[in-house]
Amino acid sequence: MNILAIESSCDETSAAVLSNGKIYSNVVATQLIHTQYGGVVPELASRAHQQHILPVVDKALNYAKVTKKDLHAIAFTKGPGLLGALLVGTSFAKSMALGLGLPLIEVNHMQAHVLAHFIQDPKPEFPFLCLTVSGGHTQIVKVNSPLDMEIIGQTRDDAVGEAFDKTAKLLDLPYPGGPLIDKYAKTGNPLAYGFPLPEMPGLDFSFSGIKTSFMYFLQKQVRENPNFIQENIEDICASIQYTLVNILLKKLKKAAKETGIKEIAIAGGVSANSGLRTSLLELGEKLNWKVYIPDFEYCTDNAAMIAMAAHYKFLENDFCDQTVSPMARMEF
C-alpha cells in the first residue's frame, strides 16, 4: 500500500511517500522569501507553492523508488492553514488522483502533527495526552486512537508560537524569531526577569497578555537604557522562554492529573524548542511520565505526518468523495 502525501498549509511545500506504514521519503522546500517581510505573506506563499510542488513531488517519488503507477492513494492537507496555500496542494492532489484513478484522502493538519509520533519508535500507547504547539494552535489533545482525538484544552486567543515570534519581533530579531529566542536563551539566565502568568480556567491557555506585558517591559527598560536589549539579549530571551514554557507545562501537568494519563507527547513546530523539550523531560522524570518527543524533522510542517495520518484513514476506507458534477459551478 503506497500513499503519496502533500503538505502545503503555510510556507513549506512538502511531499512524502509511505509504504505499508513506513516513510520512504519526506521532501520539504522552505520558502525563504518571507524573511525580508518579517512574517509569512499569504500571496507569496501561494506562488511559491506553485513553483515548488511539482519538483518536490517528483523528488519524493524518486527517493522512495516509487512510480505513479505504484501508488494506491493520494493524501493532502485539507486544513487548517492559509487558504491560498492549501488551495495549491488540494488542487494538485485532486487533479493527480483523478488523472490516475486513485482514491483521495483529506487530512487535518493538527491531527497529523499528533500522528507524527507513529512514524518512528518508540510510539505512545493509547490513550495519551499530546500538547500540540505551533504558530497557529496551542492545544492539549486526549488521543484515544489514531482517528479518535478530543481537544480538552486550547488557547483562548493567541498561539504560543505566535507569542515567540511576536516577542522576537519586539527584540528586533529577524523572522522566524522563535528559533533565535531559543538560541540566545541557552546562555541566558531564565530567572533574570519575571513576567506575570495568565490565570485561565480549566485547561485553556492565553498568550495575549504576556505579549503585552513583555512589550511594556521592554519600553520601560529601553527608556532608561537605550542599549538594554543589546546588552541583555541572552537573559531577556531566557526569561521570556522560561515563562512561555512554564505556562504550557503548568496546564499539561494539570491535564495529566485530571485524566490520570501518564503517556505524554508534544507535537507541532514549537515542540522543536530545546527549552520546552528539556523542561518536559525533567517534569516527566519527576512525575513518572512516559514522554514522547518527535525528531526535529517531524516537528515542523512536513508531508510525512500527513502520510501517516492518511495511512490510518486508508485502513478505514475513509476517502474523499470525488464525484464530478456538470452543475458543480452552481452548487453551494
| Silhouette | globular
What class would the helix/strand composition place it in?
alpha/beta
Total helices: the number is 9
Helix content: 40-55%
The helix/strand series, from N terminus to C terminus, equals: EEEHEHEHEEEHHHHEHEH
Low-confidence region ranges: 327-332
- Main beta-sheet strand count, sense and barrel state: 5 strands, mixed
Report the β-strand fraction as a percent range: 15-25%
Query: What is the CA–CA distance across the termini?
Result: 35 Å
Instruction: Please tally the β strands and state the result.
Output: 10
Give a written overview of the molecule.
43% of the residues lie in helices and 19% in strands. The protein has 332 residues and is of the alpha/beta class. The chain has two domains: 2-114 and 300-330, Nucleotidyltransferase, domain 5 (2-Layer Sandwich); 122-293, ATPase, nucleotide binding domain (Nucleotidyltransferase, domain 5). The strands form two sheets. The protein has a five-stranded mixed β-sheet with strand order 3-2-1-4-5, sandwiched between helices. A five-stranded mixed β-sheet has the order 8-7-6-9-10, with helices on both faces. The relative contact order is 0.17. The model is unreliable at 327-332 (pLDDT under 50).
What is this structure's SSE topology?
Layout: E1 2-7, E2 12-19, E3 22-30, H1 42-64, E4 73-79, H2 83-100, E5 104-108, H3 109-115, E6 128-133, E7 138-145, E8 148-154, H4 160-170, H5 178-185, H6 208-224, H7 228-259, E9 263-267, H8 274-287, E10 290-292, H9 303-315
Parallel strand pairs: 1-4, 4-5, 6-9, 9-10
Antiparallel strand pairs: 1-2, 2-3, 6-7, 7-8
